[in-house]
Amino acid sequence: MGHTYPGATVPFGAVQLSPETDTLSYEVNGKYNGDVYKYCAGYKYEDKTITGFSHTHFSGTGHSDLGDFLIMPTQGKLQLNPGTASNPKSGYRSAFSHANEVAEAGYYKVKLDDDNILAELTSTTRVGMHQYTFPKSDQSHIILDLMAGIYNYEEKTVWTYVRVVNDTLITGYRQTNGWARTRTVYFAMSFSKPFKSYGRKSYDAKQAYRGFWGKFNQEQNFPEIAGKKLKMFFDFDTQEGEKVKIKFALSPVSQENALQNMRAEISGWDFEKVKAQAQASWNKELNKVQVTTSNDNKFNFYTALYHAYINPTTYTDVNGEYKGLDQGVHKADGFTNYTTFSLWDTYRALHPFFNITQPGRSNDMVKSMLAHYDQSSLHMLPIWSHYANDNWCMSGYHSVSVISDAIIKGTYTGDANKALDACVATAKHRDYEGIGYYMDKGYIPAEKSGISVSNNLEYSYDDWSIAQLAKKLNRMDVYDEFIKRSNNWKNNYDSATGFMRPKLADGTFKKQFDPKDTEGQGFIEGNSWNYSFFVPQDPATLIEMMGGKKKFATRLDTLFTMHLPDEFFAHTEDITREGIIGGYVHGNEPAHHIVYLYNWADQPWKTQAQVRHILNMQYKPTADGLGGNDDCGQMSAWYMFSSLGFYPVAPGSDVYSLGSPLVNHAVINLENGKTFTVEAIKQSDKNVYVEKVLLNGKEITDHKIKHADITNGGKLTFYMSAKPKK
């Protein structure tokens, strides 16, 4: 499962208008429902029914939320429950076929078979546009389900408010409590034709006190509605082939702002014009990298580029206002505020990719992180930024890596010293996930954390990136402190076994230890075989501690060729054998740099061969073509970097490690007006080895290039061969 969605969005858009294919609850009988994991993006390709189209989605995540404001067109007898997948006619859902489904950048179309309605979707940054082609009927309906959501459960919706302004305009908001603890989304909904009647159904439990609203019949044609569990319906007469259109705008701030967003971004009712604008915006972004390669590889590359440019998402209204982490209204001064920072995943390759192809947006993303810090009651940079919340998902404090990388590569235009101060404050937040133990003991005792080892390794890398930033700013006291902290990874290295291993408070290693196991061994989303190579900031020292280059390379060979027993998969909900090569887990992020470590062990030909193997095995232009969740674009960014022949092993450094390009030719159109060209002469499925590399005609012998080599413009030429150059 890649957990991506097929619906309509624009680059970095606040609206992701996409179909939902079922209504699973997050819990069953008070316990986590494992099947809900299949619906992180709302859409599961194998399903045969659609329950409606909602306006917010995550792309590629392994946990979820959102699915706000589900709309479903129906005709015939009004049904307000979604029904079941086995009997779609028991509710408002509809059967559909992939034969009658089209997904393009910025556009989605599907035939709803049960009611013979053609659904089409497109979007702008803040507005979703629907176009529904109805049959002739005096019982045509648009349902607005305000209870629906992804990772839904009984008490998720805290409050909902709906105001019927007139017979074509509705406004309101919904507050939810879930992955984001306090999330409020405002909306404005406009119809292209007046509805003839409307109503609501409330599913709220009986309250002890409801005031005196009972004086009115609120079920039919009543203009102000509020409650926890509401569904609205709007009735129309339609002619054969008549198109009913909807504009649905979102805002993090207010109903008024949602309406302002709608009027600013879609003034009329020309669906084809909005679709053309959405697709033009995608063409502009996708043309930033122009590649020549085989058809399948080209499909993979531009799918990856598309997924990379979905997140992070705009979290600013057209007037510059946004909801802050303090739940107050703020104005973004001179930048676009972003949310959806899945940083444990994306610091590795996605944000470094932005520093090449989207430096302007990368600058705004760092400013967004620092605004988050300023508004945080805990004085911390984001861990996982999510709609004016931090959901605290995953480990590390990897915003410091993104910030350091952006400043070191010259992307960030703000106050670099203030940014460093925010990094330092976050890294010294003692009561966050073992940081106090890490600072005092140099490691996190296994008794104190179930992910003690991976936290130590990730904090050590993050501290190294802080040290690099401090060095650049000549803050040597900070550099000395954090370069020392960055060596804490050594405290979990067991020289007797050659593995990273949980250490107890008394300084001894935990006795029960299996480096292949992912459960109870001190790691998050991985095992010791993969995490033992997680020292991207200092591979040379790791190699020395593991017995030298030859032994290290042999150890890498074992990782890529070993056999994992079936027990390995017993506790992993997101990784199957398809996402693994030997014991190397590509479907999860901690190992993404590992294949490039052969370069440090003087066996670069193994990096070259294995990179190409991963590219061809883990990415396919099919419905099941990803070896794991896309994770907000990280899997895709790995693909693009590796296809272009270089990769950022340690963001926070300006160095990229060379591999084996999959493209024959590529041009990166830089924002500074220059171009960087990659050419792979004689590249083919057999010619995966690099004979020599030239940068602007001069041979490279150390298997690396620098960021300035790219941003200054120029040409990187690989001469490819079927034989390894040893």
Folded structure, characterized:
With 726 residues, the chain is of the alpha+beta class. The chain has 2 domains: 8-274, Beta-galactosidase, Chain A, domain 5 (Distorted Sandwich); 288-721, 2-Layer Sandwich (GH92 mannosidase fold), CATH 3.30.2080. It is built from 17 helices and 38 strands. The strands form 12 sheets. A 9-stranded antiparallel beta sheet has the order 8-9-10-11-19-15-14-13-17. The protein is globular, with a radius of gyration of 26 Å. The relative contact order is 0.09. The mean pLDDT is 97.
List the defining traits of the structure above.
GH92_N; peptide-N4-(N-acetyl-beta-glucosaminyl)asparagine amidase activity; 2 domains; hydrolase; Sugar hydrolase; nine-stranded antiparallel sheet; PNGase; GH92 mannosidase fold; 17 helices; Beta-galactosidase, Chain A, domain 5; 726 residues; alpha+beta
Set down the secondary structure blueprint.
Blueprint: E1 18-20, E2 27-28, E3 31-32, E4 49-50, E5 52-54, E6 70-75, E7 94-95, E8 101-104, E9 107-112, E10 117-123, E11 127-134, E12 137-145, E13 157-164, E14 169-176, E15 183-191, E16 197-202, E17 224-227, E18 230-238, E19 242-251, H1 255-265, H2 271-286, E20 289-292, H3 295-308, E21 313-314, E22 321-323, E23 329-331, E24 338-339, E25 341-342, H4 343-346, H5 350-357, H6 359-375, E26 384-385, H7 399-408, H8 416-427, H9 435-441, H10 452-472, H11 476-485, E27 493-494, E28 499-500, H12 528-531, H13 539-545, H14 549-561, E29 580-581, E30 584-585, H15 604-618, H16 634-644, E31 646-647, E32 655-658, E33 665-669, E34 675-681, E35 689-695, E36 698-700, E37 704-706, H17 707-711, E38 714-721
Parallel strand pairs: 34-38
Antiparallel strand pairs: 1-5, 2-3, 4-7, 6-12, 8-9, 9-10, 10-11, 11-19, 12-18, 13-14, 13-17, 14-15, 15-19, 16-18, 20-33, 21-24, 22-23, 25-26, 27-28, 29-30, 31-32, 32-37, 33-34, 35-36, 35-38
Helix pairs in contact: 3-16, 5-6, 6-7, 7-8, 7-10, 8-10, 10-11
